[in-house]
Write a structure and sequence with these properties.
The structure is a homotetramer. Chain A is of the alpha+beta class. Chain A has seven helices and eight strands; from the N terminus they run αββββαβαβαββααα. Chain A is 41% helix and 17% strand. In chain A, strands 4-3-2-1-5-8-7-6 form an eight-stranded mixed sheet, with helices on both faces. In chain A, α4 links the parallel β6 and β7. In chain A, α2 packs across α4. Chain A is globular and about 50 Å long. The two termini of chain A are 24 Å apart. The interface between B and C is medium-sized, with 19 and 22 residues.
Chain lengths: 222, 222, 222, 222
């Protein structure tokens, strides 16, 4: 994909997450450009109306490489993950309602529906503070380790993937699963998928065509 | 009814269930064509915008008889029920939110409002896995036995009927009842209709004109 | 008011309650014509699109006096109340979500917000069956006695008043109060207004201008 | 700002709160004009369609100074606060759903998300009655003391600030925080921000540019 195609895809992904209320007016997403830089939506951009013009390029210290608008204060989430995870090509920082409610009461996130199994169990950064310093970014990256997602207590979520489409779909699945977990917790103790069940869903559902179908489904709701 | 009329009715039923969020982007419905084949929406079809062109015909082994698009992987739900239930002319596989939440916490489905009495108590397939093999389809059919509906743990529901309109209405009633049961469970222990009360509602409400009124009501919300 | 004005007002009231999801596709409302007859929407009428042409006139035995469409099977609710309550000029039979959920778990309706005080405590008909016979209608009227409203277990509500505008507003207040009571019950034990507080609100809020303001508010949401 | 600019800003703020369902058909907001008078929306104004023409000027006894429409009966909330808090330039009286539900069950309001920290803990007026007399207004002002907000049991909220934009944003944050607190309480015991965490958010988030961003965000949803 060309840089413009990647930036367009990134803008579309964030815009869809904003329409689904998974990103609010201050979430952000990024795509790796190379070892030392990445694309990210600007701090001031309107998430629900994002265009390619809202995507700037910054290096791993947050210095602008392309574009003139300031990146989000929490760019450290992205830079510190790109620094230590060469396999990661895209990062989403979302403010998802149901996932965050689980963190507020100390309830661990559990896979309770098919697509949720693609994320497995998710570690928690046990602080509600903003990730607006390099040490906080390093803490997020360290908690993520080799995984797919991190939850930030009373704050939000971070999801990483090997491309923008997968990152979008996983960010959506995380919240879809959390919604079901939260709603089930209101009337009882939800069944958690066994490791064998999770593995079966991972093998069957983490395919390019199904991830793309999720993208198309959210696209149709714009 | 002509084959085209049945396929149109089937497409309309699935489309209405999608608009009511009872079918999501991967649910499916079918209508029997004869002893050895049935109509079903294709795997790739967009459920909320379904047309007669999205309906294909397959035999009981899932082989395409008419049309060129692939049927859903879970066609076994339909084929195994048609195989052993000659009275069944239509089958809906839905992903209903509230009904599924009940299964997630092991709460049995109970008739708590008038239309819910048409379904009675509903057996559970105690596995969250996809019904994408013939043995899993046989398990669903065996759990259904001579009944009207089956719930699939943490997954969804299957409803059968003697025609598409009735199947649609019962799929809607199942979820309307589950919604009330779930909401009541949040504040207490909902009153379950007695067998005498259920029987009275079955006699009064399972009439072609009332089932059609439900169809028309959902149609008006498209 | 002329008969046509009353019928128009009745159609508007039911239509607004349908848009607020207090009346569903089978609720009904009536206005007294004289000692022996009343106006009511027909059984088949579409509640959310009601016009004056959907209003028929029946006597207290349900026999059509004007119009050609059948009245609802549950016309007995209206006729038996008109028979014994000469002060009542309008009756609404609604299917309100939150009020009904309270009845499903046996939670008594309690005044927990200002407008709810206009209804006070509300007696319950302890049966989920349809009010489609004269004895059931008499039971509803006897439970109502000299009051303003009755709840029907796992079924709905009946509200009476001295004109259509007041009846509409009280039907709306009943559900607005039940919504707050239900939502508060999810996190604790809601404060119930004292008799002195209720009396103060009744004196201040049950005025023609405030009832009309409620009507106008719902009208603005059509 | 000119008087017309302040009145326009006030009308916009109330209109946005009405669209967000934080103000209902009877809430009101004001902005100080001078030591002895303030601007306020009239009692009869339609909150969701407010224009500058709906703003009247009254003195601290509620007597009209400009305009011809009657102020709300509860103008005492505003006048008694302006009387004793010379630093206050704007007051909002809202009827926020989630904040009020907390008061109904006696649950104290707690800062559980970043913007909620700008309000801190909030005192309660332990009466559901209207603030339609000077003594009740004085009671509200005394409970507020030097703070930012007061909750009124089973009734609503009052927020004060140094200008209309800040007052609007704080009224919105109060309800956004209460929503999260309520929802978390349904599944557990939400984490309350420590005093250190609250202080950090107050320093970082109570800036003119972030308050204005909140205003712009709600504006985009009109």
């Amino acid at each position: 994909m060309s840089p413009d195609e990647i930036r367009q895809q990134l803008a579309d992904a964030i815009r869809m997450l904003a329409h689904a209320e998974i990103v609010d007016h201050s979430g952000h997403g990024s795509a790796r450009r190379d070892d030392r830089s990445f694309y990210i939506n600007s701090a001031a951009s309107v998430r629900g109306a994002l265009t390619i013009g809202d995507i700037v390029t910054v290096d791993l210290d947050g210095t602008l490489v392309e574009g003139s608008a300031r990146p989000p204060f929490e760019f450290h989430i992205h830079s510190e993950i790109y620094r230590v995870r060469p396999d990661v090509q895209a990062v989403m920082h979302t403010h998802p309602r149901w996932s965050t409610l689980l963190t507020m009461v100390g309830a661990p996130y559990k896979p309770v529906f098919a697509q949720g199994a693609l994320l497995g169990e998710i570690p928690l950064v046990d602080s509600p503070m903003s990730v607006n310093t390099r040490p906080m970014g390093e803490r997020v990256a360290a908690t993520l380790a080799g995984g797919t997602a991190v939850l930030l207590k009373s704050h939000g979520a971070v999801v990483v993937a090997s491309d923008v489409v997968e990152c979008f779909a996983l960010a959506a699945y995380l919240e879809e699963n959390a919604y079901r977990q939260y709603m089930a917790m209101q009337i009882g103790d939800p069944y958690v998928f066994s490791e064998v069940e999770q593995q079966a869903f991972r093998e069957r559902l983490r395919t390019p065509s199904l991830l793309r179908k999720t993208w198309d489904h959210y696209w149709s709701k714009l």
